[in-house]
Amino acid sequence: MLKAEAISKIYPMGEVEIHALRGVDLELESGELVVLLGASGSGKSTLLNIIGGLDTPSSGQLYYHDHALHKANDQQLTRYRRDHVGFVFQFYNLIPSLTARENVAMVTDIAANPMRPEEALERVGLSQRLHHFPAQLSGGEQQRVAIARAIAKRPDILLCDEPTGALDSSTGGIVLQVLQDINHELNTTTAIITHNAVIGDMADRIIRLSDGQIVDQHYNSSKRSAQELHW
Ligand SMILES: Nc1ncnc2c1ncn2[C@@H]1O[C@H](COP(=O)(O)OP(=O)(O)OP(=O)(O)O)[C@@H](O)[C@H]1O
């Protein structure tokens, strides 16, 4: 469903250029769960942001089905993000003055074919927290609200940048289990960025980046349930 060919990204920084990505080829297949591993600065977030239409490549081609995203203008990229992509970040980015339900409703109010906020929150196990404000929720619960918000519009692609980076291992396991369940139940193509190689065990495919290049990728023959993972 998504194909990146020879993607490079150069950030000009004064006199020097930072080569964040150097010729990345990547295909994401419908319904798969991919984990992207790599050291800090290897280009993981840059790649995810380009795939999600938050950033544009300096060179290379990017196709979502037959849409050439590398040629898209701002308006077309906004539409692609709004209609097809869900994002989950390390810090949950919830609106503090809105309840869990209202945070999710912000998205469902503008989406084409959304699920009800109650359904999205039920899918992440938060039916009992609909009217809580973010400050009244634990970190893991806040991340689950962020996931409910991301999936409520039924995105084709869910992109998660260090979704458990701020969580302890057992809370992180619950959040990852939610992502794995949603991938399974809704067939949402899912990419998870992490520093943590253990998380690769829950993936269909593991991709490793180093210095702006994909240096290894393989299918995982012994996929495990996220809640079995410990780090
Ligand atoms: N907006 C930017 N302007 C300039 N340089 C950038 C920008 N974004 C990223 N970079 C640089 O590009 C390289 C790749 O960064 P990126 O954030 O993609 O790495 P990462 O693998 O996600 O790292 P981390 O795990 O620490 O988040 C780094 O050297 C970074 O400093």
UniProtKB/TrEMBL annotation:
Gene3D superfamilies: P-loop containing nucleotide triphosphate hydrolases (3.40.50.300). It comes from Pseudidiomarina sediminum. Belongs to the ABC transporter superfamily. Macrolide exporter (TC 3.A.1.122) family. One of its GO terms (cellular component) is transmembrane transporter complex. GO terms for molecular function: ATP binding; ATP hydrolysis activity; transmembrane transporter activity. This is ABC transporter ATP-binding protein. Keywords: ATP-binding, Nucleotide-binding, Transport. It comes from the Bacteria.
